[in-house]
Specification:
With about 300 residues, the protein is an alpha/beta fold. About 45% of the residues lie in helices and about 15% in strands.
């Protein structure tokens, strides 16, 4: 069984999607996404500038376009997943790959998500804490937080790779607490994603998700907020709403997927493949030119 893992907005870079445009089936998907958008994204992916590309309203749809295009390549080659998951906004492409969302509805939901999140007033940020177990990071976050200055673990990316999310003052306090024990790295993001500070975006997001047409999944999906595979459409819908402020349990997700078989990162990124290796899991990347040849050797298309 082959698992599909779809990357999120932290993987954007200038030049992304260039190799996909050389595949007619992928280029057709990228063009279709552009046609669906109020602001076409392909040119920005290829040429930048980087400051516009990494902005939330552009980054989320940029990575989604590449995810959808890479998925089209795998389909053309004859591959279908046995289980799917997506990191943060990548969960929407995972739902498309499982047959829950159509392509147009996927794009529209991502555009709505990015718009709602970008309109939340900037009240905080995110920092990666390297070298500590998640339990210790949770303790430090609790010590650094204050009643009006929340701080939580937003992303469990891999063992020893945890991202905290919350108010700037609390992030500064955590950095002071962790200075002798870990490396703390600020992330270039627009706000405190996957934290209570995203609460203002939840009502609009919940309305959009509940209104979107969804079908029962053809294969299990592993939602971010549970880290457990499910084919329950109600669970998938509510999990998608909850992940706006909830934790991305990516370490659990990778462990679950790896137990079923090897995975491939479907998009133009090698980030999830690297995180999988940190967790001792098997994951190829579509951004590696040799991946399709390797899949042809190891799997019956």
């Amino acid at each position: 069984m082959l698992g599909y893992l779809f990357p999120g907005q932290g993987t954007v870079r200038v030049g992304m999607g260039a190799w996909l445009r050389r595949r007619p089936v992928a280029r057709a998907v990228l063009d279709e996404v552009d046609d669906l958008l109020e602001r076409p994204i392909s040119a920005l992916c290829v040429r930048g500038p980087i400051d516009r590309l990494v902005a939330t309203e552009h980054a989320q749809i940029a990575v989604t376009a590449c995810n959808l295009a890479a998925l089209a390549v795998l389909r053309e080659e004859g591959y279908e997943p046995g289980v799917v998951a997506g990191h943060s906004v990548g969960e929407l492409t995972a739902l498309h790959a499982a047959g829950v969302l159509g392509l147009a509805d996927t794009v529209r939901l991502v555009e709505t998500r990015s718009r709602l999140m970008s309109r939340v007033g900037v009240t905080g940020g995110m920092r990666a804490v390297m070298g500590l177990p998640v339990e210790r990071v949770e303790e430090l976050a609790a010590l650094a937080a204050a009643p009006a200055e929340p701080l939580v673990v937003g992303l469990e990316n891999a063992p020893g790779h945890v991202v905290v999310s919350g108010s700037t003052a609390a992030l500064d306090r955590l950095t002071g607490l962790a200075v002798d024990a870990a490396k703390v790295v600020p992330l270039a993001v627009g706000n405190a994603f996957h934290s209570p500070l995203m609460a203002a975006a939840v009502p609009g997001w919940a309305e959009a998700v509940r209104a979107a047409p969804m079908a029962a999944p053809r294969v299990p999906v592993v939602p971010n907020v549970t880290g457990r595979p499910t084919e329950d459409l109600g669970v998938l819908r509510e999990s998608l709403i909850a992940q706006l402020t909830g934790r991305v349990r990516w370490t659990d997700t990778v462990t679950v997927v790896d137990a079923l078989g090897p995975a491939v990162e479907v998009g133009d990124s090698k980030v999830l493949a690297g995180l999988s290796r940190r967790a001792g899991a098997r994951c190829l990347s579509m951004a590696d030119p040799g991946t399709l040849r390797r899949l042809a050797r190891e799997f019956a298309a």
